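Board notes (copied after class):
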Amino acid sequence: MDIQFSARHFNASAGLQDRIQEEMDKLAKFYPNITGASVVLDHEVEHQRHCDITVNITGNVITASADEENMGKAVDVALERVKTQLKKANEKQNDHRSQPASSLA
């Protein structure tokens, strides 16, 4: 999966980027057709960290964000929100495909 990282107002460590890469790779089990993703990490004010995650899937875009006191927690919360949305999109796609044509009429 192609992931673009951006860090605003600070330098993201290689360890943080590697951790995010590993977690983003795990998202494929919730929705197999992920075409790309972007992660924006922001150190806005003194005690607040912001994480925006955008995931491109076939025919749709999923976004999630989180504001927390540390960057690790913000990333975790945003990833959980993305996982929830991917599960819902996958269920919606599978439910739509599983209906026989005769029941749609």
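Comment from the instructor: The chain has a mean pLDDT of 88. Residues 30 and 88 are 9 Å apart (CA to CA).
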